[in-house]
Amino acid sequence: QVQLVESGGGLVQPGGSLRLSCAASGIAFRVYNMAWYRQAPGKQRELVATINGGGNTDYSDSVKGRFTISRDNAKNTVYLQMNILKPEETAVYYCNAHGGGSDYWGKGTLVTVSS
Hints:
mainly beta
């Protein structure tokens, strides 16, 4: 059974930082491309950052220079370090694993950016 479990969300002030984690089980983690998406209230889910099995990363233009995606294959975990957060980045953040024709999602973790 595949599970992706996100953690690390919460309330943070504008300009603050948070680190999200996503622990994966039931998949050959190291060969999967991992990604973080987010969905703000009333908006479509959008891609935030990706990292492939080799550690190559890509980011949406809106988060480049502020967010960092990383992975620890020994721990089957992917991270998203988020800095200089903005109120408009309030959203549910989802972990995604993609590979071998399969696509898996976590249930999400809520990030609220507010003073």
